[in-house]
Amino acid sequence: MKKTIAVFLSGAVLGLALAFLFGGRPATHPAAESAPAAQNAERRILYWYDPMKPEAHFEQPGKSPFMDMDLIPRYADDNMDAAKNDGFALPPVLTQNLGVKFGAVEKGVLRSAIEVSGSVSFDEHAVAIVQARAGGIVERAYPLAVGDRVTAGTPLADVRVPEWYAAQGEYLALRSEPQLAAAARARLLQLGMTAAQIAALEKRGAPHAVVTLHAPRAGMLSEFDVRQGMTIDAGQTLARINGLDAVWITAQTPEIEAAGLDIGGKATLSFTAFPGQTFTGSVNALIPELNRDTRTLVARIALPNPNHKLRPGMVARIRLEQPEGAEHLLVPTDAILATGKRHIVIAVADEGRFVPVEVTTGREAEGKTEILAGNLNAGERIVISGQFMLDAEASLRGVLARMDDTQPAAMPAAKTHQGVGTVKSVDATEIVLAHDPIPELGWSAMVMPFALKSSETGRNVTMGQKVRFYFVRTEEGAVVEKVEVIAD
User: What gap in Å lies between CA 307 and CA 246, rounded to an integer?
Assistant: First the structure.
């Protein structure tokens, strides 16, 4: 199942992991221990935060008010990396402790199949209906009932047909006159006698009003409405016989998966009554109408049943093979993060950097998903486990948010926004602001860097001042066009 990005939840999970890794160290943060002090001194710190509550920012280092651990610094170059859409890096020990596992992008053809359930029914192509050819009276009903098996020629009932008696006598009397005999014979056929019955009449030489109805084929009696002494009318159905040499299985296929089905497609079936045994059939029909209540399409499968072991009403587990598609890049389905707006795969770049890559997904089968579009290549390493942790880190560093900013449809062209904040640092090209929430953009309060439109834009402001700033959003990020100092 695809994992849905939940920044709040995954941020908390990342915080637990970081707390486990770093919470027990009393004096300094591990990042400071793993790098020379001079190196950290060269990196500008934006703020300190608690990984359990990353949205809360602090201006000074110290203990977290939320749990017993040191606050972690957030460096300015972390956000610069995110701004370049160059992903983010994690120490190898942290990657290992987060349980991150890797896989690879491959190229191939996805062989997919649909697994559904279905029920066994009679083959409606193998059915015979027994009807009365003329009105009469049932003199004898043979001891049969619905559900009984019959063979071809099994007697079903003896029926007396008074209308036949006089017509038979007339035919026998006119046999010496060819033209009249032909007319009398035609009348017998019109009354419902068969050519075989007329031949028997000629051989017998005497009229006989009682006719025996026989089963025209082998099978099971699914209807049998004959009782001794009952009166029947011409055309009345007396019995229905369904053949058993083949059966149909009707498979309820979900609408979303039905598009890949085709008549003649292979179907593999199994039944709980026959464990370990499989049956092979083919799709012989796709019912044109969709079931509006269940949103399913019925696929009908024909299956030989020579030993009659498959019985109507049995439930089958069905695997329907779908036609092979075109060759595409394939990734493990577990590698895909669904944000609600897009699908993302986290690729592994050089020097252990993780880069979120937006992709367009195709079909999914057997744990793999087609990649129809996206900046991935065959053989490239990707993350297949631990994405929630990495997602929290990417969200914390602004990588995914900046991916949103670069979407053309979401970019308000040349619209100026404004906010209020405190200057954390400023130079000729960039100003770092701890700004209040900006509701029109859905931004919460945070510390973040902004590019300056020119070196003159931030010339009259200094660190610690409260300012009102005006900015626009571009493909490169947010650019401040004007800064006004707010008087105390």
Answer: 10
